[in-house]
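Field log, afternoon session.

UNIT: design team B
ACTIVITY: writing a sequence onto a fixed backbone
BACKBONE:
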């Protein structure tokens, strides 16, 4: 019972951005490092440069990034176990149509579609012979200086020969 509780906590941390996995799946890139609190600075930064096109003239390129910081709150549920509520910091950077989510050492990249984005976070953890895997999905909506939305997911933790279904539900909010 204690082993599974520890694994369920690890699963929540991975869903919130902790963990030590690296993976890539099509349009979403995920990298991870050591778990820890990731802070961020709010605000907007801008860089620009010029590109010469020989005799055809020149073009100006500019990129603007907006940083959002906030928290992600999730509940992890598994049959036969008490629900676990977790809160983790989250930083989101939007640069053009590129969206980068960072939380507790994990970074996920996706694309902005209008004012919304979806990021799938693969979950894959093994500890003390218990293996958990699944997907947590973050759906964000940009509204002025706020980004918010639901976090949902599901997976399975294998304890010995028994598979235990796990669900992740919650939300996040970040402001610039």
């Amino acid at each position: 019972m204690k082993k599974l509780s520890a694994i369920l906590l690890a699963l929540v941390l991975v869903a919130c951005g902790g963990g030590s996995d690296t993976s890539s799946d099509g349009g979403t890139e995920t990298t991870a490092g050591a778990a820890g609190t990731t802070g961020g600075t709010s605000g907007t930064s801008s860089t620009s440069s010029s590109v010469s096109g020989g005799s055809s003239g020149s073009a100006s390129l500019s990129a603007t990034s907006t940083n959002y910081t906030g928290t992600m709150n999730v509940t992890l549920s598994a049959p036969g176990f008490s629900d676990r509520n977790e809160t983790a910091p989250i930083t989101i950077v939007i640069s053009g149509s590129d969206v980068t989510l960072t939380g507790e050492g994990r970074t996920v990249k996706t694309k902005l579609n209008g004012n919304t984005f979806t990021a799938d976070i693969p979950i894959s953890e093994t500890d003390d012979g218990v293996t958990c895997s699944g997907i947590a999905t973050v759906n964000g909506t940009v509204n002025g200086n706020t980004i918010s939305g639901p976090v949902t997911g599901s997976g399975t933790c294998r304890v010995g020969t028994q598979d235990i279904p796990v669900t992740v539900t919650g939300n996040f909010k970040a402001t610039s």
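LOG NOTE: The first helix runs from residue 2 to 16.
NEXT ACTIVITY: expression trials, pending approval
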